[in-house]
Design goal:
The chain is α/β, with parallel strands linked by helices and about 400 residues long. It is built from 13 helices and 15 strands. The chain has three domains: about 160 residues, AICAR transformylase, duplication domain (Cytidine Deaminase, domain 2, 3-Layer(aba) Sandwich), CATH 3.40.140; about 130 residues, Cytidine Deaminase, domain 2 (3-Layer(aba) Sandwich), CATH 3.40.140.20; about 40 residues. The two termini are about 25 Å apart.
Length: about 400
C-alpha cells in the first residue's frame, strides 16, 4: 500500500486526510506543490474526461475543472482570431494541446478562475506559459517537457501544483466510497462513448455531419464527469455552457444556455471593441466583461467606476442588441445526462442556437420532446445510456 498524506480533507477541520492504494503503487507523482483533497478529486475526474475525449476523437483534449465538475472542456483545434481575442491567447503559433486548454478555459472564464487544469497530452512550453498567466490551482498531465516544468515551478511563488499521471493506469473494476460510515460499492463506469451511441436518430431531420458527431461525443463525455443533473452546450469542439448539479433538468438547460449566451455575447462587436486601461489584471478584465454583458452593466459604467477599467466609457450594450446577437447563434449541440422529460428543454436549447441534441431518451413524453425538436428542424439522437455522476 502506498499513500500520500494531505493537509486536510474537504475542509480544514477534516483531519486526518490522505490518498492511498490498497494494492500497488499510486499511479501519480507530485512534481511540484502540495495538492489537497479537493485538488486530487478534480485532478482524477478531469484526467478521466480528457483521456476519454482523446480516445474517442483522436484529438488532444483539455479540461478546466472546479469543484469536481468541468467549467469547460475542449479539443485541440486551431484558434480563430476572435477566439484569440476573447480568450486572451498569445500571438503566434500554438501547439494543439495549448489550443485545447485555452479553449477549455475560455468556455467560462469566470467559473475557471482558480481551476484545476487537465491535459490529455504532454504539457509543453506553450501550454505552461498560458497557465502561468492564469489564476489556477494545478495541472495534471501524462508528462511535462523540461521547459514546461521549469515555467510551472515559478508560478504561485513556486507552490503551483503539478501532478504527473500514468496514462496506462486502469482502475479496479469495483470502486468503493464511504458516506456516514457506510461503504457503497459499484462497478467502475467504464462505458465507452463513441459514434455507435449516436446511431438512433429519432427526428425527421437525420442529417448529422461529422463535426456535430464530434460535438455530441464531447458533450456526452463531459457529462459523464459532471455532477448530475447536468446539461452541456457544445460548439466547434468546445463546451460553451455546462449546467451542473441542478435538481431540475430545465434549470440545468437554462443555466448551461445562459452560459452559452454569455460566451457568444463576448464576441459581439461592442465587447470586442472594449478598451481596457493598461496593466489591468486578467480576472478584473473578465469580471468587467461579465458585468458589461449582464443586466448589471450600470455598475461597471457608473460614474467614477469605469475609469478604473476602461480607457473610454463604453456604449451600453442594450437588451435588444443582446437579443438580436444571440438570435444569430447557430449550429450548437446540446447533450443531457438523462432524458428530457418535457419539450421545454428543447425550446430553451433552441433559443441558444441548438441544432443537434444527444440524450438518452426513455421519457413517457418522448413523443412530445421529439415533436418539439421536429418543429425546429433539429437532429436528435437517443443514446439509450444515462450518464449520472455523483
Amino acid at each position: 500500500m502506498t499513500e500520500l498524506e494531505l493537509k486536510y480533507g474537504c475542509n480544514p477541520n477534516q483531519k486526518p486526510a490522505r490518498i492511498f492504494m490498497e494494492d500497488g503503487e499510486l499511479p501519480l507523482e507530485v512534481l511540484n506543490g502540495k495538492p489537497g483533497y479537493i485538488n486530487f478529486m478534480d485532478a482524477l475526474n478531469s484526467w478521466q474526461l480528457v483521456k476519454a475525449l482523446k480516445k474517442s476523437t483522436g484529438l488532444p483534449a483539455a479540461a478546466s475543472f472546479k469543484h469536481v465538475s468541468p467549467a469547460g472542456a475542449a479539443l485541440g483545434l486551431p484558434l480563430s482570431d476572435v477566439e484569440r481575442h476573447i480568450y486572451f491567447a498569445p500571438e503566434g503559433a500554438l501547439s494543439p494541446i495549448a489550443c485545447a486548454y485555452i479553449r477549455a478555459r475560455g468556455a467560462d472564464r469566470l467559473c475557471s478562475f482558480g481551476d484545476w487544469a487537465a491535459l490529455s497530452d504532454v504539457c509543453d512550453a506553450d501550454t505552461a506559459r498560458f497557465l502561468a498567466l492564469e489564476v489556477s490551482d494545478g495541472v495534471i498531465a501524462p508528462g511535462y517537457t523540461d521547459e514546461a516544468l521549469e515555467i510551472l515551478k515559478t508560478k504561485r511563488k513556486g507552490g503551483y501544483n503539478v501532478v504527473k499521471i500514468d496514462p496506462d493506469y486502469t482502475p479496479a473494476p469495483i470502486e468503493r466510497r464511504n458516506i456516514f460510515g457506510i461503504t457503497f460499492e459499484q462497478g467502475y463506469n467504464d462505458l465507452a462513448i463513441d459514434e455507435k451511441m449516436l446511431a438512433n436518430i429519432v427526428t425527421t431531420n437525420r442529417d448529422l455531419p461529422e463535426s456535430a458527431k464530434h460535438d455530441m461525443l464531447l458533450s456526452l463525455i463531459t457529462l459523464k464527469y459532471t455532477q448530475s443533473n447536468s446539461v452541456c452546450y457544445v460548439k466547434d469542439g468546445m463546451t460553451i455552457g455546462v449546467g451542473a448539479g441542478q435538481q431540475s433538468r430545465i434549470h440545468c438547460t437554462r443555466l448551461a444556455g445562459n452560459k452559452a449566451d454569455i460566451w457568444w455575447l463576448r464576441q459581439h462587436p461592442k465587447v470586442l471593441g472594449l478598451q481596457f486601461v493598461d496593466g489591468i489584471r486578467r480576472p478584473d478584465r473578465d469580471n468587467a466583461i461579465d458585468l458589461y454583458i449582464s443586466d448589471e452593466h450600470d455598475d461597471v459604467l457608473a460614474e467614477g467606476v469605469w475609469q478604473n477599467t476602461f480607457q473610454v466609457r463604453p456604449e451600453v450594450l442594450t437588451e435588444q442588441e443582446k437579443k438580436d446577437w444571440i438570435a444569430q447563434m447557430s449550429g450548437v449541440t446540446v447533450g443531457s445526462d438523462a432524458f428530457f422529460p418535457f419539450g421545454d428543454n428543447v425550446e430553451r436549447a433552441f433559443k441558444s442556437g441548438a441544432k443537434y441534441i444527444a440524450q438518452p431518451g426513455g421519457s413517457i413524453r418522448d413523443d412530445q420532446v421529439i415533436a418539439t425538436a421536429d418543429k425546429h428542424d433539429m437532429v436528435m439522437a437517443f443514446t439509450g445510456m444515462r450518464l449520472f455522476h455523483h
